[in-house]
Amino acid sequence: MMDWLVTPLRHIGARIINAIWRLGFILRFFAALLLVSGQSFTRLHLTLREIWFTGVLSLSIIMVSGLFIGMVLGLQGYEILQRFGSGDALGIMVALSLARELGPVVAGLLFASRAGSAVTAEIGLMKATEQLQAMDMMAVNPLARVAAPRFWGGVISMPLLAAIFSTAGVFGGWLIGVVVIGVDHGSFWSQMQASVDFRIDIVNGFIKSVVFALAVSLIAVFEGYDCHPTAEGVSRAITRTVVQSALTILALDFVLTSFMFRGLS
Amino acid sequence: MTTATGDELVVLQDVHFGYDPNHVLLRNIHFRVRRGQVVAIMGGSGSGKTTLLRLICGQHAPLSGSVRVMGKDLGRFTHAEKYAVRRRLGMLFQFGALFTDSTVFENVAFPLREHTQLPESIIRDLVLLKLNAVGLRGAAHRYPAELSGGMARRVALARAVALDPELILYDEPFAGLDPISLGIIGQLIRRLNDALGAGSVLVTHDVTESLDIVDYVYFVSEGGIVAEGTPDEIRAATHPFVDQFVHARPDGPVPFHYAAEPLAQALLGRAQ
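YS: structure for the whole thing
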């Protein structure tokens, strides 16, 4: 009789319960991952290999993207600032935008697309071809041997990539602002130096990138480990990694920004 | 009544298994493997033979009954104890499950590197010896993608016996192999088992090849063991399922037709 109302409600309820159950499952997975993480550091070469694959091989996309975003900031920032006669403050605007927001957020999004998806695909394919099961049968814990080094490789790489992204961005802003448009070289750097606070801007930006790194790496490793061991299952897991990482980064960024920069004059 | 002795590597006593107690997949399973024996578990697809193998290697726990592997009750094992037993057994997966991004050499070296502190020079020698035993020493530098199905299975076999296991488990070792590879794998299973003084469990539905190399056979059908015996006893068995299976008869207890309404009724029904 009330089917038109009950069915959608039931559907929504089931989805919410499923999402909560999955969140709990991810947290249990995270706890298990931390418990077996010792090997990632006692056998450092496993983690260094992942830093190479997820970090070093992502350098080019991170540096090029940072450079272009800095150049766009230089163009747009100068155009807006000069309306108020503050063209010389371009250095501050570029540096603060990058250190506080764009560096951690855009580097996190790029990292999720470039490295997170690769980690999910690799672990997912290992699962689909029974390689994880084979390891388990050889009394080698795949969580410790495969998942944990990839997780920590991501956690270590991403904040460094975010810092490199911001540096490339500042250089891009300088290139457009100072070299192309003609903003005073001294003003650009001195105003930046005077206004960017190490603790408030740099450290907070770094904390953001560490939090995003934890989230993206956990999602990437979990989705690979949890995927259906089929071609379609792996492909869906990769999609989930990119989508969930992007949404998580943006949501966490709002929460962290509201705590870190609330009330700053 | 099955009682455990020092020579028995695997003893399953009155084992019942199901993913939930209302849907029992295996029932009343009595099964044993002695040192030096190659034992086959045969049965059709979906009969429960791979599930039985997973019970033996501790991937599943029984609902009731006991699973003793190398004298220890797997049902009461902690994770660490299970891993301690697994270090003493080797498993060959149906499609090899080789690490695709590592060379043949690295694949075979993997268990040695993970579980021993041997110097690299000794690991190299051991790996080459294992590869030589399966005839693939010359392919040590190749990647799994460059190997044929039979060669990949042989590499997986070398990896499974890298730590000289006491018990070797094979999940469909003959599936999808050409007759030459099939014969090679069959002989390797027998030779490695005898050389190591181990016990082997073979899950297979390849009758001809298996009966030539095994010492004892268990036939699984519809969740239970319906027949057991030596290869000669199995060849002479009168059990309808075993007879149909061993002689590859198209019809019998396992019907040719999947359960459906009579053909005439189905055709007339559509016409109406």
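YS: worth flagging: The longest helix of chain A spans residues 142-181.
IM: good catch. Also The radius of gyration of chain A is 22 Å.
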